[in-house]
């Protein structure tokens, strides 16, 4: 009986599948390079300009592509080889990241070069993110989606932990340009792991039979706006992301200008926050029973909004890392639940389109929010901005605290 139980356990384990090993290991190295770059680029901007406006501008250029690239990438993912798209995106991103130190060596690097390269990297990163998330329901069975999404989020978060600590340490030891070279090389492994992934043949054949047209895009838009639950959640996340955009874009500036942190201390802040996020990932599997998903998502957003208030009154590295952990860990739990919900509700044949449109709408607040926060922080203390946005986020979440029963019922029916 014990032997039979072990065989059943192994059969149900995601780790016996080749797709799991290839997908998650390749994704980790990709995410590690990306997170090192995310830490290094604002550090470089600050070293060159010491300006919150410049950092806000960089954030604007790095987040704008998620608005207009995401729906396009979703359409492409529904009609072309996702493996090919991922490989191309990884190759180009690695080359672009490595281009910054090369330009510095040749004394050709200027601030507009960094803006342009950062914008292009963001374009291909947005495409990669949409295609990568679209592949998950094609690689794994529906009953394994929550586990896969949890491990995916674990990898994303642990890459923040290792990438931030490693990036902060290396910046202080070898300089930001050599760190960018290392980050560029981290995009290579995903290329090889993606080649050997297996996608369901029938899905691929059905996709190839369809012609790429504008009508398919409008089908995705129609599905999203006619679905009450997805429509309401998209609007909620859009509004909450106004505060998230401000924090993401100005955390390095806040840490250096207000708290006078060095690169290793900043890496520690990101690292400890990532450790809290990892704990949240393991916790979400125990707290979610499939019936309390929506309530759990709302609770996480409320806790996250309180984290903004804590960050606004932080006075040293320890209080800041606590605030960032309080703000970001619930967001990670929310992301796991939200991603799994979308994968269960949206039909596979249009998942890329609908997912891309949702990402576009949810992310469209980030660029303007980050840019405006950079502008406002030049005349208003950034602490006041963080505190105000945290309070406004709490109010928005309160207004959306309970979705109508009809919307909740639609989730239970379509995800069953």
Automatic annotation (TrEMBL):
Query: Any idea where the Major facilitator superfamily (MFS) profile domain is?
Result: 19-408
Q: Which Pfam families does the UniProt record give?
A: MFS_1
Instruction: Supply the alphabetized keyword list.
Output: Cell membrane, Membrane, Transmembrane, Transmembrane helix, Transport
Example GO molecular function term? transmembrane transporter activity
Keyword Transmembrane helix annotated: yes
Topological category with respect to the lipid bilayer: Multi-pass membrane protein
Query: What would be one Gene Ontology cellular-component term for the protein?
Result: plasma membrane
Membrane-spanning residues where? 21-46, 52-73, 85-106, 112-139, 151-171, 177-200, 232-254, 266-287, 294-311, 317-337, 357-376, 382-400
Q: Does the keyword Transport apply?
A: yes
Q: Where does the UniProt annotation locate this protein?
A: Cell membrane
Q: Report the protein name in the record.
A: Major facilitator superfamily (MFS) profile domain-containing protein
Which species is the source of this protein?
A: Cytobacillus horneckiae
